[in-house]
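Input record (one chain):
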Amino acid sequence: MRNQVVLSIVTAAALWPSISMAQSPAEQGYHEGGQIGGPVGAVVGGTVGAAVELPGDVLGFVTGHPRHYDRVTERIVVGEPLPAVVHIYVIPHHRDYAYAYVNDERVIVDPRTRTVIRVVE
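The corresponding structure, as predicted from the sequence alone:
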């Protein structure tokens, strides 16, 4: 049983580069995860990297349209919803994304759930 699990992980790690050939967060996550955690880290890193890939014009819009920063005492964490007092702004032509400026950080959120998708560096 253990040999089958190891073989499955090694096979998945070997096939992963052919799946993510383009320069993307998935490829970067694959390589970084592979360096840190071996084959298992590569697969997990590639999956996590793919989860945060956004259209380029979404990032450009967020960085090019400054807003007033809201202040909250809570920490802003990817995967957690923003507090209700934080104002979010919908991104034109990409209604699946919204953004907010909070605690000196720009964040991209899901407008339906207010969940933080990414903190923009």
